[in-house]
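Cross-check.
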Amino acid sequence: MAIPKLTTLELRIMEAVWKLGPCSVREIQEAFPATRRPAYTTIQTTVYRLETKKALRRAKKISNAHIFEAVLSPRAARGRLVDELLSLLGGGPSLLMAHLIETGKLTRDDIAEAEEVLARFEQNEFEQEEKSK
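Predicted model, tokenized:
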């Protein structure tokens, strides 16, 4: 399944659903800060778009309210955003990494964590290669 491209509002709605679990349009709307809360109909329209994109689905109906749940995982959605960013930067992560280091947003702890993830990835690749022999 292709991971859909999400607008900023769609991503904010997805974050609300990931946090709340299965919920109604009203509950999603109320998850936004009161001072910057989109109108109910805006949330409703966007939820229906997310349903069309197969990022959300209707889980059930309670009285007149449809209850929606996430189909798309946070990891998949964020992965798509990172892939889009890297594509804008020419496909490689070096510009992004340099910027994060220069601005102090990438610490030695972050680098150590990334090295652990890379080691696990390499170990899994090695194990898969061994199984295929």
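The longest strand covers residues 56-62. The radius of gyration is 19 Å. Passed to J.P. for a second look.
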